[in-house]
Protein: VOC domain-containing protein
Organism: Streptomyces pratensis
Amino acid sequence: MGLEWEQLVIDAADPVALGSWWREALGWVVVNDSAEEYEIRPEPDRLPGLLFGTAPEGKTVKNRLHLDFRPDDRDAEVERLLALGARHTDIGQRRDEPWVVLADPEGNEFCVLGERPGG
C-alpha cells in the first residue's frame, strides 16, 4: 500500500477569490473552479495541488501549518507578492531571520525563504 500526496486543503471565506489569488501568485492552473471547491495545481496532471473550500468561521489564530517558498530572489518575490495583495505579518519571528513572513488576502501565513544555506 502506498500514499500519494494529492492536495492541501485551505479553508476560505471565498474559495474562488482566495484560490484565484494563489493561482496568480504561483502561476498554477485551475483544475476545478466550482464555488465550493476551487483547486489549482502546478500543471493539470501534476500533484500536489491546493484545494480551497468554504469555511463558515473566520481565521482567528496563527496557522498550525503553513507553506514555505524558496524563490531565486527573495526580495523581488516579496515585492511581487505584496503588489498582488499579500501583506507582512508578525508571528513572533526575529527581525534577523533569512525569511519573510507574509499573509494571503484571508490572513493565511506563508514564508518566502532566503538563499539556501551553502548556496
Notes: DSSP finds two helices and eight strands in the chain. The chain has a mean pLDDT of 92.
